[in-house]
Structures are given as structure tokens and as C-alpha cells.
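note to self: dont lose this again. the chain is below, predicted strucutre after it. 353 aa total, dont forget to put it in the shared folder this time
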Amino acid sequence: MAKVVVNTVSIGANAKRVRELAEVNGVEIAAVTKVVCGDPTIASILLNSGVKEIGESRLENISRITNAGIDSDFLLLRLPERSKFREVLDNVDTVLIGDLDSLSKLYELSSETGQEVNFIYMIDTGDLREGVMYYEAESVLEKAFEIAGENLEGIGTNLGCFGGVIATPKKFEILLSLGEFLRKKTGYSLRRYSAGNTASLPLLEKGIVPKGINHFRLGESILCGTDVTNNREVPGTLQDTFTLYGEVIEIAEKPSVPIGEIGRDAFGRIPHFEDKGKRIKAILDLGEQDVLPSGLTPLVGGCEVLHASSDHLIVDVTESEKSFSVGDSIGFRMSYGALLRVMTSPYIRKVYE
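---
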């Protein structure tokens, strides 16, 4: 059975490194565990490193953590369907929200049940994912304060995840300007400005986060040591946090180009092959259902990931630095996207070291 080995020491070191970098800049962090499906072992490591808040997008993952006996403040990154709003109040301390009607319904339910919850209203500063567009936000924030009062804890934004927009001080200053507008209008000062994710880390590293921005939501930088939006490894972090191993279930010399007319593969893609003559190809016991093949980097030099179907990963081992037989394993580093699928797959065994 394919497995992923979790390096708990490296994850803890990354969490400590990123937390300390944030603290130097007057910023608190929520450690985001959605890529590991709220894995309780990993959540415990993050909290033991000094993180005080866990960020999650799914209530199921929060329940997974709390059912393991782990106590934390929880930040819900994405609302569930409205039939689960009561579960939000049962499990969550703070909610990112970008819709006035949802805010009204959650706050009304909170008042009825006596279960207090705080809100961070999301502002779209250009990445075009959640939140009200920044140029339409003033009237919306006034209304949000009318609804939630002091339970409107803050405002936030997200960059990089959908549109790939790069974080800049100017983007963050939009939030500060909106907060100042609200203060002048109502006399109320927001307590949290949640402006950053991993894509925003360069601003922390350079010390150019505008004063007043005091909260980041960080997952990839801690769990992978990478920053895909800026196409880099995060300075001072480790990248050996997760290692995927697949077992060779078949190995043979075969042509490098399929024989016959080429149509589409099992996922509707038209595959392309370079004619290299006959090659030695290993089939591993995992596939697209378990991992994003394009996000895999073999740990053995000379190996090349060629393609995958649902349950078969094809690796060219012709020029491998090591010879392989059926029953051997090949290890891989993973991108954030590959890790997401691996941790979601029930077919990949999780091993903690």
C-alpha cells in the first residue's frame, strides 16, 4: 500500500519559524490545516509550536481535531451549507464571511442560542475569490456592523489562491482604509485585519507589512515550506515535511510512444509522448485518485514521472541511479496540490515520524 511519511519535526520547525517571523512584525497567525484534512497529529504539532489558532475550511475537519481531544481556537475559512449553521456555532470561534444575508442568519441564530461567534468580513482586493469588491465595500461594511455590532471582529482579504494576484502593501492598505472609514462612520474600531496567506509572506520577510495589519492565515508555508504563488521555497523553512512512497507492482521495457491512433485518456486529455525508443517503465500502486502526478518529484535521480490513470502511476526508470524490481518503493517530494490529494485519499497510508 502506498504511504506518505510525515516528518513531524520539520513541520514543527516550520511552524515555529513562521510564527516567530510573524511576531516580529506584530502579526498573529492561524495555522491552516485544510491540506491535511484536519489531521489531529499535525494539528497538535502546530499548537505545540506556539500557534494558538487553527484555520479550517470544513467543519468535518474541525470535528476530527476536537474529537481527538485537542483544544484550540478555530477560524472557519469557508461557510458550509446553511443547514449546518448550527454546527458552525457549536464548533467555531471566528468565521470568515462575505455575504450579508449569511451574516444576518448566523448572527440571528447566535443570538437565539446564546452561542457567541465573531466575524471577519472578507474584502476582494482583486484576486476575485470571496468577499465584496473593495470599491463597493464601504456601504456593505456599514451594514455588516449594523447586523453584528462588536462581533464584527475584523476584515480580511485573500490573494494568490484563485487569480494568482501578488500581495503588495497597497493591497493591505485597502483594508486599513476601509477600517478607518468604518471607525469614522460608527466610532467602532476593528480588532483584526486578516490580510495575508502564504502568498503574502514576502511582505513579512521584507518588513513592509503596513502597520495595523495583524493577522495572517498560513498553511502551505508551514506544511510544505513552499510558496507556489511566488514560485519559491520559503526562506528558513524545510521542505522534507511529507514524502510519498509508491510500490512497484510491475516493471518492463516498452516503447515510449503508444502504438495506434491516439485519442483521449481516461480523464479526457490528449496525451503527448516523445519518441525515445524502448524504455524501462515501472508501474506504481497509486494514481490520479490519490495524487496529482504533475506535482511529484522523484527522490531517485534519473526517474521521470510520465503519466497516470486512476490507479496506475507510470515512471520511466531507464536512467535511474538505482535499479528497481517489483516490490521496491520509489519516493517523491510533493507540491501543495499533490499533498492535498494524498492526504484526502483513504488509500494512502499515513505514517508519522
